[in-house]
Amino acid sequence: MQSQFNFFHHWYPLSPVEDLDPHRPTPVTILGLRLVIWKPRASDTFRVFLDRCPHRLAPLSEGRVDEETGNLMCSYHGWQFDDRGVCTTIPQAENPDLVSKNKANLCAVALPCRQENDLLWVWADSQSVEQAEQTPLPLSPQVDASQGFVWSSMVRDLEYDWQTLIENVADPSHVPFAHHGIQGDRRRARPIPLKIAQSTLDLIKAYVDKPFKTTIIFQPPCRLEYAISFSPEKQVGLVTYCIRVTPGKSRIVAQFPRNFAQTLQRLTPRWWEHVKIRNQVLDGDMILLHQQESFLQQKQKTESWKTAYKLPTSADRLVIEFRQWFDKYCGGKLPWQEVGISNQTTQIDNDRKLILDRYHQHTQHCSSCRNALKNGQRLQAILLTYFILTVSGVALMPDPLRLKLGLPLIILALLGLAVAAWLRFWFQPRFYFVDYIHADK
To answer: Does the structure show a pLDDT above 70 at 57?
Structure first.
């Protein structure tokens, strides 16, 4: 079946802008395409190129932003490219006119990009710039400060495929169980009378009336959003952008808006929210979905998802609708072959530290968590140094002074040592790996 849905002719958010480093290139992969994000020195906005130099195909993400020109320099041979991808410098050129006369053949591939709602967006096809300009971004009406909303954001790479991610976010009934004690309570699980209001190529819309009025929207290929009304005045939302990366890998860029408790939102450190809630929620799904995906792929070799899954309740209605949409408009397959990737089968990995690797999946991408981890490591080193110097200094004091001044100093040093131990054994691991055992929850 010929796919009717072109995944490359859509806008995708790559990252919250606050997490991007304006001083060095950042690699990212979506739709099987390796991209590089960088910021020209004289520009207020970032740029996105395919991550390869036209010279010898070296990765531009290993390059640097030149201090003098502000252009992107390839670290292999020093070629430089301006904000449109035009080659401006070839250090090896014998003839100065070589660059100006061959601009069309020497360009880096620049993709259309925009910055809106605190996110950096990219259009995944360099050959359809006019279409990109005419296509609106899939923005959420909830991420709007003029309407009284405040929000936070996060990004994390996930160890399962795009279809599995969409299914999971579209399934509210798993929350009391997979996220018990964090965002749900399995003792309060109830039937969810979910109804489909609209289903087309470009939009699936569902709603739930109880216990709170909830609207769920899937705007293919990536925006999946909840709007939950606690009352006519109070609304909370979950805005997710579910992004294909490579087979068996996906990325979620999420925003969490609400139109109440604005002061609390501003006072809560972003990294603390990630450590205490957001990463734990994603951890709660990770092992389950990684293995579920592999089991489904094995079954689909001989049967359809319609028989592999057992979906008898109204709570399953949106999952069914998404699967039917995927069959109807995508032929039940993702177009990996268009970027030269074979559609591989997910193999179950039993290394929990790899599956739940917070550092490489999130911390290294998040400026708030990176800085919190770095500050924690610095504070730990300072406290350990203080303890060693204090103990050494007190040992060298005369006896009368040691009795009078040494004891308070030792007490302070021991308190500092306790804080250093907390930083080392509780705080810092939260940015690397925390095992999630459902049986213990």
So the answer is: yes
Environment class of 134 (CB within 10 Å of its CB; exposed 0-12, middle 13-18, buried 19+): exposed
Which sequence spans correspond to the domains of the chain?
11-134, 145-352, 369-440
Classify domain 11-134 at the CATH superfamily level: Rieske [2Fe-2S] iron-sulphur domain (2.102.10.10)
Q: Per the confidence metrics, is the pTM higher than 0.70?
A: yes
Residue 236 in contact with residue 228, Cβ under 8 Å?
A: yes
E-state strands within 23-116: 26-30, 33-38, 47-50, 64-65, 72-73, 80-81, 87-89, 110-111, 113-116
Q: 169: number of CA atoms within 13 Å, CB side?
A: 29
Cα–Cα distance measured from residue 81 to residue 62, given in angstroms and rounded to the nearest whole number: 14
- pLDDT at residue 3, as a whole number: 55
Q: Which two tokens stand for residue 229?
A: 């009304």
Q: What are phi and psi of 373, to 5 degrees?
A: -65, -45
Q: Give the pLDDT confidence of 137-196 residue by residue, as tens digits.
A: 999 999 999 999 999 999 999 999 999 999 999 999 999 999 999 999 999 999 999 999
